[in-house]
Design goal:
The protein has 299 residues and is mainly α. Helices cover 71% and strands 0% of the residues. The chain has a single domain, classed as MetI-like (MetI-like fold, Orthogonal Bundle). The chain starts with a helix and ends with a helix. The model is unreliable at 1-5 and 10-18 (pLDDT under 50).
Length: 299
């Protein structure tokens, strides 16, 4: 009998391999479960979902044509027109519903641009530090010292007003704020052992930032995105109100307020009030979602 074959090998017990992707998927499921137990998050999603439906469906679901259906000007809210008509006789409800389209295109794209570029700069600043951080930080601080609305106003006057220009201007103005936030998160992560281990393995800086640090600062970036989205809605509406943002004949909310707010002193309040409430509802909904995300991320 071969006794060597009968004796089991001596050594440490086999360690089961941990499926990192499975763990991350489980963590995401738990996070979603916690979020959907928060009333603020649900309310925010529902409100934004309603406006998104209005933006996608557009004139297909509005009671009247928001552009060309002209009736009696400044008809007060009533049975024929639930929210009344504006100075040109256009149905205010139809224009408020259709006005969500431009806002929900321009504001999210501007927020995505600002957060994307800002997160990239924040990763570079926080990881490399030294001269790179010093140069970019001085540029960021210079931008942060400027009033956002005033810079956007002057830039749009020079470059002209179009949805693309508004997206670029608002996105670029949000970039320094996001870069500073992400930089702080990256600096904290860059001191941890897993980053040191990656450096000792000879991994490149780009790999460490993309595969090691970024997944661990993704939470603050997502929160920053929702916060910037709310600010973008308000900023786009303000620029439209000032006449340099979204242009006629769009039923954009800020533009509608700009066209009608002078009539409030004569008692024609409805063409101004309802677009203003639409802006407020969108901003509050986004802030509810952002608060829920930030609360879950900090737990």
């Amino acid at each position: 009998m071969d006794t060597a074959a009968a004796i089991p090998p001596v050594g440490p017990p086999a360690v089961p391999q941990v499926d990192i992707r499975s763990e991350r998927a489980q963590a995401r499921r738990e996070t979603r479960a916690v979020l959907f137990r928060r009333p603020g998050f649900i309310i925010g999603l529902v409100v934004l979902g309603i406006w998104a439906i209005f933006a996608i469906a557009g004139e297909a679901i509005t009671p009247y044509d928001p552009f060309n259906d002209f009736g009696v000007g400044h008809t007060p809210p009533g049975a024929g027109h639930l929210l009344g008509t504006d100075r040109l006789g256009r149905d205010v409800l139809s224009r408020v519903m259709a006005g969500s389209r431009d806002v929900l295109i321009v504001a999210p794209l501007a927020a995505l641009l600002g957060v994307g570029v800002g997160a990239f700069l924040g990763l570079i600043m926080g990881y490399y530090r030294g001269l790179v951080d010093e140069i970019i930080s001085r540029i960021v601080e210079a931008f942060l010292s400027l009033p956002v609305i005033l810079v956007a106003l002057l830039t749009l006057v020079v470059l002209g007003s179009s949805n693309l220009v508004v997206i670029l201007v608002v996105g670029i103005l949000f970039t320094p704020i996001v870069a500073r936030t992400v930089r702080s998160a990256v600096i904290a992560e860059a001191q941890l052992d897993y980053v040191t281990s990656a450096r000792l393995r000879g991994e490149s800086g780009l790999f460490i930032m993309a595969r090691e640090i970024f997944p661990n600062v993704r939470g603050p970036i997502v929160v920053e995105l929702t916060v910037r989205f709310g600010y973008a809605i308000f900023t786009v509406a303000t620029l439209s109100f000032l006449g340099v943002g979204i242009q006629p004949p769009s039923p954009d909310w800020g533009l509608s307020i700009s066209e009608e707010f002078n009539n409030m002193i004569s008692g024609k309040w409805w063409p101004t009030l309802f677009p203003a409430l639409a802006i407020a509802s969108c901003v509050v909904a986004v802030n509810l979602i952002a608060d829920a995300l930030q609360s879950v991320a900090s737990e």
